[in-house]
Amino acid sequence: MLVQDRATPKSSKPSSPALILPSSHHGDHRRFVPAKSLDFSTWAFDNLYKILAVCFLAATVAALFFLRSAGDTAALLCFDKTRSASSSSGGGIPYPRISWNSVPPIKPLDPSASPYASFRSDRWIVVSVSTYPTDSLRALARTKGWQLLAVGNSATPSDWSLKGAIFLSLDQQARLGFRTVEYLPYNSYVRKSIGYLYAIQHGAKVIFDADDRAEVVGGDLGKHFDLDLVGEAAAPKHPILLQYSHADPNRTVVNPYVHFGQRSVWPRGLPLENVGEVEREAFYTEVFSGRQFIQQGLSNGLPDVDSVFYFTRKSSGLESFDIRFDDDAPKVALPQGMMVPVNSFNTIFHSQAFWGLMLPVSISSMASDVLRGYWAQRILWEIGGFAAVYPPTIHRVDKAQLYPFTEEKDLHVSVGRLIKFLVSWRSKKQTLFEKILHLSYVMAEEGFWTEQDLQFTVAWLQDLLAIGYQQPRLMSLELDRPRAKIGHGDTQEFIPKKLPSVHLGVEEVGTVTLEIGNLMRWRKYFGNVVLIMYCGGPVDRTALEWRLLYGRIFKTVIILSEQRNPDLTVEYGQLAEAYKYLPKVFKKFQGAEGFLFLQDDMVLNYWNLLQADKEKLWITDKVPESWVSVSTEGKTSDWHVNQATLVNQIVDKFPVHFQTSYKQSTTEGRLIICGSEIFYVPQRFVGDFIDLVEIIGDQSIHHKVAVPMIFLAMDAPENFDSSALATVVYKAGLSANDSFTSYYTANVPAIYPLKVHHEYDFVKLIRVMASGDPLLQELV
């Protein structure tokens, strides 16, 4: 609560029995007048203001006494009433306010209560333990120059002990006095947050966030990470770092495993739509070392991979991974605007980034450290810091344990949207902790975590201040300054090795396989094409699957549906007027080569489109079942007549070049109808498409009528790349007994129709499509 000065109430005296009046001008003595006889009601009325004043003072004293006895957290945290009132009316979350200068200190335990009360160390290794010490943990405890801190939970044996380690049991954690304790689940590794605070309180300058299965390669962390960043002594050691190029401002996340020789492996927390980005960097830039306050190391053996990778790359459940990264590849930094997944078992945090160690508590455990990593990277930019990725620093043995997909749902559903949100987020707050609190608040409002994590952030920041942590100073955000142009002399080249990996449960020998090579060719061709997909089926069951299928190939996958779902990044759109939603997407991705529209009941065999001309329009004008010319004279339905009338009215409003092109390609008295389940608009026609949609305005021209009209207005059919979609299999009027597998073929660019309503339909689709793209087998 904001602390205010207390007013000391003045002592009150009993009222006089008589009223003393001044001397009379006519007499030389004082005259005493008896007091008026008052009943209680009259007295109360005459002294009302005095009564109210006394009551107010009494209430103030009582309130201050209550707040003092209610605990520091309640006394220091209050809610902005004005904002709360406005928020509550809209269902918002109250914004916390903290009196930063009034947080009382938390001192270490008395030496009588803990033998380590006065112990201090600059370098700490923090792990969570649930079982008795492993051999890997014993090795960590022997790491020279580092103090191992083991944080227990409800599953930890009560007699846990390890020579060389400090162990914090649940009971000891509760006695430390940290506010964060009350928010932590009992049986979870996120209790490491207590360990971080303990290490900071006991002198930490560097913290290695580790796993009890981690074996440090060579036993020396100093050989792998940059531990001395401040001062002249550090300059000769690592003055320059390679850095990913910021040339593409739309590139906001990167798979670092490609840089270190593993193109077909991706880290946990990488959006699934980005797993197909396997090309090496065209070039790198450079950045001065010294501000890589978060350093992410790689793990040989079992890297940090998600459940999708873990289960699709194994030929048997008993098989163990032993994946190796390039030890000689240079460490690489991330520029502002670009992020990388960061985990909690092989990461160095320097003191300037200690605030970023907080592990969220309201989301699934497999998502907590990854979400923390993205959150921390965004805040890191506010102090001029950055994250960097380092060659293999540890080895982890794969125990062939389950990786529950359900525990990663928070990643696969929202991580792509989170990254875009973080890059665009701005705050005008004046201190680092105020910015952290603001970001945590907005993330709660956006649904990336809950109000519980907002309150946890409040407790975390207060605990940091209470143990003496000093906030780093803010710096101007590079993202908001014009980026320097990258000249030829500013670029650096590095060609990653192609190391043996695993693919479909089979080891790759020496080089990337033919299938991976095909994937790279498809990705190279479509990598700057945006896929706009309309989903008529239930998006909560299929949106992730569609992104997983096509996100490997295309720049991004935009999903439209009548079932808007912000958590799945599904935008609202009606199929009858789907074309009207496209200009918004066009404007968002102005750097894309083109845009491919696809309905979910048409399957795309992308491998058969590599010869298509991306500078021309594609549509099914050569597929007679899809492109139909209907007479609007004689016995014609009212719908056709109405649509034809609207088309004529709109065409008459077209500028002359559009109007001429359309009329030269059509016959009077006939209406062109196209299924329009699939079509392609290159970037050079995007402006025309937008202009034509604006002319249509709010006229109710159906998607099947508007799209062919727009295409014929933009260009003559002989200029289309009609051969691109000429061989599409288009089966209209099928019976319910007709099976999709009976007419599917991998030798055409697309097949219609197919209904995908749930995961089982998707699995059947993937199995038949794998005849054209064998890599799809890893998805099922």
Folded structure, characterized:
Residues 1-26 are annotated as: Disordered. The chain crosses the membrane at residues 48-67. Keywords: Membrane, Transmembrane, Transmembrane helix. This protein has 780 residues and is α/β, with parallel strands linked by helices. Helix content is 29%, strand content 15%. It is built from 21 helices and 28 strands. Strands 5, 6, 7, 8, 9, 10, 11, 12, 13, 14 and 15 form an eleven-stranded mixed beta sheet that branches. Strand 18 (529-534), helix 15 (539-550) and strand 19 form a beta-alpha-beta unit. Helix 10 runs parallel beside helix 11 and helix 18 crosses helix 20 (703-714). The longest helix is centred in the first third of the chain and has 22 residues, at 48-69. It is elongated, with a radius of gyration of 34 Å. It starts with 17 loop residues before the first strand and ends in an 11-residue tail after the last helix.
